[in-house]
Amino acid sequence: MACRAFIIGISGTAITDGERAFIRERKPWGFILFKRNVETPAQVKALVAELRELASEPNAPVLIDQEGGRVQRLSPPHWPTYPPGAVFGSLYDRDKEQGLEAAYLSSRLIAADLAELGIDVDCLPLADVPVEGADAVIGDRAYGTSPRKVAEIARSVTSGLMDGGVLPVLKHIPGHGRATADSHLRLPTVDTTVSELAKTDFAAFLPLADLPMAMTAHVVFSALDAVHPATTSATIIEQVIRGSIGFQGLLMSDDVSMNALEGSLSERTRAIVAAGCDMVLHCNGKLDEMIAVADEAPMLDGRALERARSALTSRKLPKAFDRAAGRARLDSLIGGSAVA
Predict the structure, then answer these.
(1) Does the pLDDT value for residue 338 go beyond 60?
(2) Of residues 254, 255, 278, 282, which has the active-site annotation?
(3) Which domain holds residue 215?
């Protein structure tokens, strides 16, 4: 089915008539859900099914940010609480194998929650490496400050998701850990040298370059491109993300409506595509903005289409998993704070 190279959110718990017409006409590749879209398991499951029906594509990806900790769109009373990434990092420092096991179990349980609803993509894992003095937007979402440790935990998280039939989205490539501002609010600039970035920030992503999808960072790396954030920098996408890191999967932007980016939604969309992103992500559910993005998003074809197809075909059927036993084990590993 022909579609355009963008992903959208919708405004509420049910699809409006305007959104229905928009989806049928503009054919987004996929959808992303937020807390504003969530009420009950039955409601979410029905919403996901209707989105795919409107897209005329039973395999249209439906994404969510379900990390645990501060970033969890599905929450009690209908869904359990999961720990932030730093919990796995702390456990890893005490016992590496237990830290990796806890990371796997948490994401495997998350995948089981998502699969019941028909959600098949989680915007996880993070490979951001925070430094002292950085903005707290990453904070305890990160697995640690060592690139090797971060990559190893991220790999365990990835395995848990994929064993549960859910595709991962690696973020925020090539790194948001040094940013001294929240890119939701304004554009961060990192002035670190390329050699230092390669040893730290970029190094955490290198072992994860085989993942099927990744999301860019709205961060300026002045040593590489003094003007454009990674999301709209052809230099960073070509030389770093596709080059030194070697990521060849589907590359999506972070949210095009975030305040880190300049210009109109149309200008931002054009810049994202021109820089080399395969997919434009729009999250806030505002229909007028979605129309502006759709007007500039190209039909998905060429190399971008190949990457999109490859990502979706990498989905696996869920492996057998005892959720009760997995939940109990996770709870025991991290001292009772795994789930609520």
Answers:
(1) no
(2) 254
(3) 66-286
Asked about 288 being catalytic, the answer comes back as: no
Region 40-57: mean pLDDT is 96
Q: What CATH number does the domain containing 70 carry?
A: 3.20.20.300
Query: Residue 199 domain-assigned?
Result: yes
254 is an active site residue:
yes
Residue 56: pLDDT band with limits 50, 70, 90: confident
Number of domains in the chain: 1
Catalytic residue among 95, 184, 191, 210: 184
Residue 133, in any domain of the structure: yes
pTM for this one? 0.96
Q: Considering the domain boundaries, does residue 2 fall inside one? A: no
Summarised one tens digit per residue, pLDDT across range 152-202 is 999 999 999 999 999 999 999 999 999 988 888 889 999 999 999 999 999
| Cβ neighbours for 305, distance < 8 A, ≥ 6 positions apart | none
